[in-house]
Design brief:
This protein is mainly alpha-helical. It has helices spanning 4-16, 24-38, 60-70, 89-101, 113-123, 133-143. Helix 1 (4-16) packs across helix 4 (89-101).
Amino acid sequence: MFDKKQFKDLITRVLSEHPELLSDSAVNLLLSTAAQESQFGRYLRQVGGGPALGVFQMEPETFIWLQSVYFDVYPEISIRMAEELEWDLRLSIFMARLKYRSIPTKLPDANDIPGMAKYWNRYYNANPDHGTDAEFIENYQRFVA
């Protein structure tokens, strides 16, 4: 599992490369998403043999879709492979942020954890049968707060 301070610093540095992606809300939402999706880095492959990869448990289909949507804006992602999400933290952070950027609804306030839980569950959680707002908040408290 990650050291919270170091992982937050890494997220901030990665997003700083594209200032339009950086905000306190984005950083906290990514920290919280990692807490929920991979137990803050404990799992780098989906438990049970599913396709999701990396600290944010992104599925290859989502990765490929994001490449098609953001190729013109961020051409560096065009040569990347979904499999890299398992070991490339920079890529994982960047792609998770693009997933949230693809949502037209504004990010919740950085300190609105219940709002972030709802946002994650509605826009990031690929399987509504797994993961709840309450679980997200619990994992935030456990790993991020």
